[in-house]
Structures
1.
Amino acid sequence: MHLKKMYILLIILLLLIEGKKMFAQDFGIGLGLTLEHPQEINYERMSRNLKIHKVYLPITVISKIRAIPEIAYWNAKYSFEDDISKYSVLHLGLGIYYLIPIEKTNVYFGPRIAIIDIKNPSEDRPPHIITSKTDWIFGATMGAEYKILKNLSVGFEIQYNYYEINPWTDFGYEERTVQRALETVFVIAFHL
Amino acid sequence: MKTCFFLTIYIFLLISLSFAEKNESKKLFKFGISATLEKSSDIYTDGFHSYTNIGFSKILLPVIFKSLIKIVPEIGYRNRDSKEMSEYTLWQIGIGIFYFYQFNDINIYSGPRIGFEKLKSTLFSTDDEMLTNNFINYGLTIGSEYFFSENFSIGSELQINKYIFNDTNSFEIEISHLSLVPVLYLSFYLK
């Protein structure tokens, strides 16, 4: 398992270092971190606010098109007397944006999609039963970033997001929640 | 006492800044869009239960007039619909009108701000009754903004806000409190 993670990290590092040589002249790749409001996530059969920071991997495919894959992971274990519950939240997303460069500022806008996979393995249940659920986010984003240094930028995004929050697989809760929200995100990114 | 202390600091800053040398700009209007990052707000998320703390993003649409007055409308929106349980919709609008001092790449501003929040909530188990709650907040703001370039800036402000919550429904709840709210924002301006 550790070897697999190391291998994925190695691939990402190689892509970061070699990306410019491997692809077209306009190609650019980066690594960013977001600062944002706690995300309201329905993970314990109830709504909770989770403070999740996402990692952005901005890829300028051609001069005016940028793809931003995003990833976040969160894991927690709660214990109360003999009752132990564990949760893991994996967020994977992708935004495809049209880029307008204005001097040192880039303005971008476009659609974004993300999937939130939440698992709740329990020691009370047989090991093959893992309660899980998958939520979806569909959104539209407008962003702007300023290159404070040649390789470093600060920016923000204004997102209109539609959340489809689904019920858990084996608890028989049929409650499906839909959420719509205007949200803001700050991004600090390193670009090669 | 605490309010007097902050008011004294505020008046002192206004007086001292009014003697400072200002950097005149020829532009009549400058329009922008900003994203804020601020302390979570205490908001009644369902109107029926408790006073809950949620992270709430606001979008600002600053207009700078003659490098003298900064008008900042703000907007926020959130809707959550749990199909068979409850639904709430929260709208927030506000406006700040600030006197503006420009020193090279930095500006400092100060002035009053008012915000209005409307929460509509329905709990489906109580005969689909819809409740509407209103929040008003108003106060003084002092802020500063640094321009990296003509069209991109970072800023922060400190707001001293008075919050008033009036339950217009049968609960007869009235809450008011005074708090200091720090806000960080990034802005993009059209040239």
2.
Amino acid sequence: MTNPTTITAPDGLPYIDIERDFDAPADAVYRAHSDSELVKQWLGPRGYVMDIETYDVRTGGRYRYIHRTPDGVEFAFRGSFHSVTENAQIVQTFEFEGYPGVVSIETLDLEDLGDGRSRARVHAVYPTIEARDGMIASGMEGGLTEGYEQLDELLAL
Amino acid sequence: MHDDPADPATDDRLDAAFTALADPVRRRIVARLSRGPATVNELAEPFAITKQAVSKHIQVLEHAGLVTRTRDAQRRPVHLAPAALEALTAWIDTYRLIHEQRFRSLDDVLKRTTKEKES
């Protein structure tokens, strides 16, 4: 049984909220978010190569990574880690280099639920609603084709 | 997403929008236009393709009702149609699928790392 993902993009406010539970404690989820070798294994869309140039998860650290599609198209993302609290919170900026100058701030909160389970909540704030919608459209290009394939599969049911 | 999914007109419109937006160049054009109108020249600039090719992409977007062009003498700037943002909102579904896939990969990573710890 897969844990459900809740994503909310409210009307009239430039936010995206994501909530997801994991069958692992908060420290393990934190490690999967902060160890670049682990990040590489899940952050990129399936079938794409994810190159991490730098991923320095500490207050004041920075990151840059590139998703490469099978036909060699690259999508780069970068930002800095504003504040990091081990096993509990990561606040970072996020910018898709194909849409430069539009920077969102993403807060990840991790909370232990007991029984080896935990909850992750992501709150992303965009400069404008248009930027949010544009970022949804362009900032996830790496995963879009696959998203469509999955959407097709769902619609075929 | 207040559209009635049973309404065939809504369906056709979304189909056209999704087909038009299935191309990465056209998505970038729409993303650029969400920041304000632009001429074909301005839109062609970031791409290593001809102005003619960009014009073709704009035509596809125009037919899908995502952009409009004003008859403003030579400039003819391209505008994002109000319906486009509505279509983009429907993208949240795709966005959700991407996150779903990402979190399932994260589940796999967590399964492996917590097992390593136990052993």
